[in-house]
What does this fold into?
Amino acid sequence: MKIKEIVNALEMFAPLPLQDGFDNAGLQIGLTDAEATGALLCLDVTEAVVDEAVTLGFNLIISHHPLIFRGYKSLTGKDYVERCIMKAIKNDIAVFSMHTNLDNAPQGVNYKIAEKIGLKNLRILEPKENSLLKMVTFVPSDYAEKVRMALFDAGCGCIGNYDSCSYTLAGTGTFRAQKGTNPFCGKIGEFHYEDEIRIETILPSFKKKAVEKALIKAHPYEEPAYDFYALENNWMQVGAGVVGELKEPETETDFLKRIKKTFEVGCVKHTSLNGRLIQTVALCGGAGAFLLPKAVAAHADVFITGEVKYHDYFYYEHDILVAEIGHYESEQYTKEIFFSILKDLFPTLDIQMTRINTNPIKYL
Ligand SMILES: [Zn+2]
It folds into this structure.
């Protein structure tokens, strides 16, 4: 299969428009028309990882952290990023990254961390704002089903674990076709009444163009009437961090020891223990301390993330147990998400997780 088929499958799971504004997820290097010779999965692209791909004979690296974050005016190999770029290009290796789009996606990075901890009843800690639209169109009755299905196929109608959600209302449309038109019904120059169905449905904003195209294709009218409305509803299935519950409460010490073991953390930093039982757990892989207020508001007993600033320990120590487990440690199992997306879709593709621990932080 071609690299672009693999990339498309990854983008289906975590669409690139879900990434945060600062991010640069997506194709970093390479041509996707090439046949894939194997995929190496990693958290970070380092020179050792590119070397590993070369040794394996793989021409695709899939990483969580993007290799490229800024514009380059020259490539001289002066830092590891430039050296990785040059080495990947020299060896015809494509690099594709799934970063905050995978953090924000349902079943993404934070779901994997929650799975490792054994959390149930997961909810997004900070659902994405301003990312949903309502779409309304008016269709002659006999064509309502065709248009409705075309809208669903284009990505409309998903609410939680339900798809095909829409609302239908019958009414009467009016129009008068002017000279030069080719009306589907009614006569040129005559006022016309038509039995129409109003269809309302919901969609992610980033699918607007595709939905508009599908509507125009499926709608019988020369000039279909339709409206997109911006919604103030949050997208509850997409966003930063998750919160969920342990099956059985644990003492703070038992819980922290278990986390240390599960994530192979050299040193778990945490706020003082006050004897609370841990049942509700909020978390965010990587640098997730910005979600601390949300974790407190969600009445979580503990917040786990990869990086926390010194003063945040002071600020939140009475509200919640804060545990910092390291950026790499918190996100290391992201490779397993890539693996599970690809293994069933591409059973003949050689897929391997890197054997290199790319964590640049060492513990004495
Ligand atoms: Zn990260």
Notes: The two ends are 45 Å apart (CA to CA). Residues 49 and 69 are 18 Å apart (CA to CA).
